[in-house]
Amino acid sequence: MKDYFSSQSDQYAKYRPTYPPDFFNYLNTITPRKKNAWDCGTGNGQIAYELAKTFEHIFATDISQSQIDHALQAVNISYSVQPAEKTDFDNHLFDLIIVAQAIHWFDFEQFYAEVRRTATKDALLCVTGYGNIKISEEIDPIIADFYTNVIGTYWDKERKYIDEGYATIPFPFDEIETPQFENRQQWTLEHLIGYLNTWSAVKHFIKQNGYNPVEKLHAALKEFWGDGAKKEVCFPLLLRIGKI
C-alpha cells in the first residue's frame, strides 16, 4: 500500500469529508453481531470513532503513524500501524471489516486473504468511499477542469477505481444490494481549498513543479463563492458490501 497521507496528516483530519449518519444507521441494521470490527486504512479514525458507538471494540489500522497520531480517540478503539495485507490479528475475530477511501491502494488478493482469515462466520466486508465533489453548476466545471486538465496526469493509476465508483474493483464475495447515500455538508471556500490541498495529485504536482496549482484555482473560485459564505457540498457515497 502506498503512503501519501503521512505528510500534513493534521490537514487530512481537518478537511476531509465525514460520512453521513444514515450510512452508519444502515450498517447497524445489517450487522447483528457487534463484538469486534476492523477499520482498515483508518486514516483520521472517523469511521472507527462512529463504529465505536455501537460495537464493543474497534481495531483500527493504518500504515501511517502520523495519521494515527491525529486520529479520533475512544476507550474502545485500539489503533495500530499495520499493512492491510498482513496483520497480527487472530483468526475469525471480526464481525465487520470496513475500508473507507483506501482499498484502491491495497493489493486486492492479499488483502482479501487477510479478510477471510480474520472474519467470523457470516461477517460483512464493507468497502466505501466518496466520489468527486458536487457544488453548483458554475463551480463544478471549474473543479472538473482542474481535476482532469491541470492535475490529471499526476493522479496515481489507482485513482481510476474511484472515478469508476469502485464498480471495477475485484470483489469476490456474496454481494448484497445497498441503498444509495450522499454526504452533504456546509463548507466555506477555505475548507474546500484545504480539502483540495490534501489530494495526492496536488502533492505530486507541487513536488514536480515547485508551486501549488490550487492557488490559481482558489482565485477562480472566489468569483462564484463570496467572502465567508458557506455552500452545500455533496459527495456521492461509493459502497459495496459482501458476506465473507
TrEMBL record:
Record key words, sorted: Methyltransferase, Transferase
One GO MF term, please? S-adenosylmethionine-dependent methyltransferase activity
Q: Which InterPro entries match?
A: Methyltransf_11 (IPR013216), SAM-dependent_MTases_sf (IPR029063)
Q: Which Gene3D superfamilies match?
A: Vaccinia Virus protein VP39 (3.40.50.150)
Biological processes, Gene Ontology terms: methylation
Q: Where is the Methyltransferase type domain?
A: 39-126
Name this polypeptide is given: SAM-dependent methyltransferase
